[in-house]
C-alpha cells in the first residue's frame, strides 16, 4: 500500500505542471481523427475554430463550425461569439468539427483543402444516415473516394478495405456494391486526387438532402414532418418525400415563439396578402435551434454582410439570439477575388 502511494506521489511530481488559465480541448475532425489543443480559458468559440482550421491549413473557415452534445442532442452548434467556459464545464472540452454551410457549387471553392474537408463531411453524413442515396450513387461516390485516397487502382479493393476507408455505410455495403465500386474505380484511372474529390462533390451536390440540416416538427394537423434548411431555402418533407420548398426569396420573415416556428411567405401574383405557415417543435429549445439555423443560413447565403443581433435591454432572454456568422458567402467571394487580383498584380 505504501509503495503504491509513493509511486502515485512520484508520478504527480514527474507530471508537467498545468499551465494556469488554459484548458484542454479534444476536437474530433471531419475525417475521424482526434486533435487535442490547449486554449485560453477565456477563449471564444471562434478562436478555437480558427486554431483547428489553422492546424488543417484551411483558410475558408466560414463554411465550418464546431458542434457539441447538450441535453441529449449531439449536434448543437458552438456559439462562436461566446466564451467556451460558459458552454463547457468539464475538462477536456469535447467538440466536433463540421461543415455548417455547404456550398451549392463546390467548384467555386478557392482551395483544394476545403473541398477535401467537404468530401469527408458528405461521407460522414452518408455513414451516419443524415444523407441517403441509391446503390448506383453509392458506387459512384465510393469509386471517387478511393481514387482520391489511393490513386490509380492496381488491384480490386476488398470489402474490409472499403470499410476502413468508409466508402459507404456498413449496412449498405454488399457484394454487389463492392463489385460496382471496383468497376467504376478502375474507370477513374488517371484522375489526380483534386479531380477525384471534385467529381465526388459534383455528384454529391445533386442529392436531395445535400447540405440540409434537418429538424423534426409537426404541422397544424399534428402530422409529423421534417424541416430541412440548406443553401437554397427551407424544404418540408413528409415520410421522406418533398412536400414544399420555399426559396429564400419567397420568405419575408422567420420567427418563433416558444414551440411555434412560423414562416411568412411573399404573396404571389394571385394573392393579395402574405401567407403564414406555422409548425410545432417538440420543445422551445428545439424551436430556437431551428430558428437560429434558418436565420444563419439566410444571412450566409443571401445577405451582403453579416448582421449583429444586439442584446435587447430589459429583456435578458432575448440576449441569447446571437448568430454565429462572421462573413457571408458574398464577402468570402469578394475577398477571394481581391486576393487573386493582388497576386496577378
UniProtKB/TrEMBL annotation:
Q: Where in the cell is it found?
A: Cell junction, Adherens junction; Cell projection, Rhabdomere
| Chief place of localization | other
Q: Which SUPFAM superfamilies match?
A: PH domain-like (SSF50729), Second domain of FERM (SSF47031), Ubiquitin-like (SSF54236)
Q: Where is the FERM domain?
A: 23-305
CDD domains registered for this protein in UniProt: FERM_B-lobe, FERM_F0_F1
Keywords annotated in UniProt: Cell junction
Name the InterPro entries for this protein. Answer: Band_41_domain, Ez/rad/moesin-like, FERM/acyl-CoA-bd_prot_sf, FERM_2, FERM_central, FERM_CS, FERM_domain, FERM_N
| Name assigned to this protein | Moesin/ezrin/radixin homolog 1
Q: Which organism is it from?
A: Plutella xylostella (Diamondback moth)
The major lineage groups are: Eukaryota, Metazoa, Ecdysozoa, Arthropoda, Hexapoda
Amino acid at each position: 500500500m505504501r509503495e503504491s502511494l509513493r509511486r502515485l506521489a512520484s508520478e504527480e511530481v514527474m507530471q508537467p505542471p498545468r499551465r494556469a488559465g488554459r484548458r484542454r480541448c479534444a476536437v474530433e475532425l471531419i475525417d475521424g481523427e482526434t486533435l487535442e489543443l490547449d486554449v485560453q480559458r477565456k477563449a471564444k468559440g471562434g478562436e478555437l475554430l480558427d486554431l483547428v482550421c489553422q492546424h488543417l491549413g484551411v483558410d475558408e473557415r466560414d463554411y465550418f463550425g464546431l458542434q457539441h452534445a447538450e441535453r441529449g442532442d449531439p449536434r448543437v452548434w458552438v456559439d462562436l461569439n461566446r466564451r467556451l467556459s460558459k458552454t463547457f464545464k468539464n475538462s477536456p472540452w469535447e467538440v466536433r468539427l463540421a461543415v455548417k454551410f455547404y456550398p451549392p457549387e463546390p467548384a467555386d471553392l478557392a482551395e483544394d483543402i476545403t473541398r477535401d474537408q467537404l468530401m469527408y463531411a458528405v461521407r460522414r453524413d452518408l455513414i451516419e444516415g443524415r444523407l441517403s442515396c441509391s446503390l448506383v450513387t453509392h458506387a459512384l461516390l465510393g469509386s471517387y473516394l478511393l481514387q482520391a485516397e489511393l490513386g490509380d487502382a492496381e488491384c480490386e479493393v476488398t470489402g474490409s478495405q472499403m470499410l476502413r476507408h468508409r466508402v459507404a455505410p456498413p449496412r449498405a455495403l454488399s457484394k454487389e456494391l463492392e463489385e460496382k465500386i471496383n468497376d467504376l474505380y478502375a474507370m477513374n484511372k488517371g484522375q489526380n486526387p483534386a479531380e477525384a474529390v471534385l467529381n465526388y462533390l459534383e455528384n454529391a451536390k445533386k442529392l436531395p438532402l445535400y447540405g440540409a440540416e434537418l429538424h423534426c416538427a409537426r404541422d397544424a394537423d399534428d402530422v409529423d414532418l421534417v424541416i430541412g434548411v440548406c443553401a437554397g431555402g427551407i424544404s418540408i418533407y413528409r415520410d421522406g418525400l418533398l412536400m414544399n420548398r420555399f426559396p429564400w426569396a419567397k420568405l419575408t420573415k422567420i420567427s418563433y415563439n416558444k414551440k411555434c416556428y412560423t414562416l411568412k411567405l411573399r404573396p404571389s401574383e394571385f394573392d393579395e396578402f402574405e401567407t403564414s405557415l406555422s409548425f410545432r417543435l417538440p420543445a422551445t429549445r428545439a424551436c430556437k435551434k431551428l430558428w437560429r439555423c434558418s436565420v444563419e443560413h439566410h444571412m450566409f447565403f443571401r445577405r451582403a454582410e453579416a448582421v449583429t443581433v444586439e442584446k435587447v435591454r430589459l429583456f435578458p432572454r432575448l440576449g441569447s439570439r446571437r448568430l454565429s456568422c462572421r462573413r457571408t458567402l458574398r464577402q468570402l467571394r469578394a475577398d477571394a477575388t481581391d486576393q487573386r487580383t493582388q497576386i496577378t498584380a
